[in-house]
Amino acid sequence: MSDSAIYQPGDTVRVRVDSPPGHYRTPDYVKGKTGRVVALCGVFRNPESLGHGGSGLPAKPLYTVEFPQADVWDGYTGPESDKVLVDVYEHWLDPA
Amino acid sequence: MSDVQEGHEHPEDSAELSYYAQRAQAIEALLEEKGLCTPEEVQQAVNTVESRSPADGARVVARAWVDPGFKQRLLADPRSAVEEMGYILPDANTQLAVLENTEDVHYLVVCTLCSCYPRNLLGRPPDWYKSLAYRSRAVIDPRGVMAEFGLELPGEMEVRVMDSTADMRYLVLPRRPAGTEGLSEEALARLVNRDSMIGVTDPFIPQAVASA
Hints:
heterodimer, A: mainly beta, 5-stranded antiparallel β-sheet, 5 strands, 8% helix, B: alpha/beta, Nitrile Hydratase, Chain A, 2 domains, 12 helices, globular
């Protein structure tokens, strides 16, 4: 992985379904869900390495991704326009 | 450390340290022994967080309300903007980000995985922010949670829940209450409560406006 981000705001992405051992920061409730990239937050050291005494390098691009609440929760009662936004590292995302 | 415990706090006397206090001391001793940080650095980090409070965030919000140029800089580069006001954010590993509430969009911040919070600006988070109940319900039923805090939002307003999962620390820039045109920056800052910078409430409405 490099320091250059492969996704742009507006891109549609799907969160990987995975449960690797260790300190990953992808919440279960968005795994397998499709969302839209809102912003590139920057490039940060990888918590999956940092959390276990590693260097966190190579650093990973981090994105804010928005998901319609109705797609995430069965029976969400709020308006369709409501969203949940999650910061997700690039290696957890696939194009969708 | 009582901060690690949730719910209620136990007063600690020096003779009998709690499990968490002992654990924190052991970790601190190990960090120093391994040369990863000095006691002074630990003390400095504690001092920074302890010296900050929601009043600091409120000053930033009030400045953004009265100064459009500052607001623009705050949204584009929050770290530099708060530095203009004398707030140095020591943790270079995390980034402050500001989410602007508008008449169409309302942001609510949560950290479902732990308790990430802009401590460098607002100080320590409230206990409820760290509770499992808030952390799960804020994402599943944000409107229900806000209603319990007294904030009922119209259906046409989009609710955007920001789950602070990684390296960003989110501050909500709440909407300036109507009828506050004549107020000074200092008076405006007093309307900005902690919870409005998390997004579970709106700022206070000044009494003069509320009773008008």
